[in-house]
Amino acid sequence: MSQRFVIGIDGGGTHCRAMLQDTHGNILSVGEAGPANIMSDAKQALASLTKACNKAIEAAPVNVKLDDVVVAAGLAGANIPQAKSAFLSLPMPFKQIEIISDLHAACLGAHGGKDGALLICGTGSAGTLYQNGQFTDKGGYGFNVGDNASAAWLGHAAIKHTLLAFDNIETRGALFSRITSHFAVADPHALVEKIAHFNAQSYGTLAPLVVECFSEGCQTAEALLNAGGEYLSKLGKALLCETDTPLPVCFLGGLAKVYIPFMDKQLTRSFVDAQSDARQGAIDYVKQQALI
Question: Does position 1 have pLDDT exceeding 50, yes or no?
């Protein structure tokens, strides 16, 4: 490639991470910023992406300018064609930008560009299988209609449970106490007010409370984690049903370690460690496709 520098991006629902490399693949510096889901908020995603790139550039041991770099970005929401088109219609401050979904970038990075499957469970959840140069995606439809087992899903489920417990439809146990204490509320209407403007990221911040309650023996929290683990197991099996060839599976995301004990043991035996991350996966993809 003719350009001297490329920045790989891993842009998800909570963080945008940048990695600056030279033409030889040497990592020069990194940077981080906020959410970069182009389906949820394209302008915010671009702002986060730009900020993360600038931080990486500022930390670089060599002189680099933003308008001289090629950006290879794996971004949440890039699997939705309309969201991708809307994002790319925005004025870009880079010399060149190429984007794929964060899911695809993570899969390529995890398996070193070779065939394999990926499950991811962080703010959102999704799965993909890469074989013979083609991706097969499942899930990843967004918080409003999907993202089962995700941090956003867990947090939302905790709120629903708390409201039902206020109505004496479900038991007022440890999770109920933790949520009401967290929000400092004593009635359901006060809780509804507190969450009136919540989005996926907001609900996702409540997931650690569910995990904490489970570790303290809360049956409600355990039931939620069981439900999430069952969904992720089904998602993984559905991906592997797309191929007759046994393939390794990588499970990534902030909740991966939490869910493994709740998942199908036959599936988890096929899990492997990631070789690299989505930033490297995005860079490798655009190089393979001769886009830079």
Answer: no
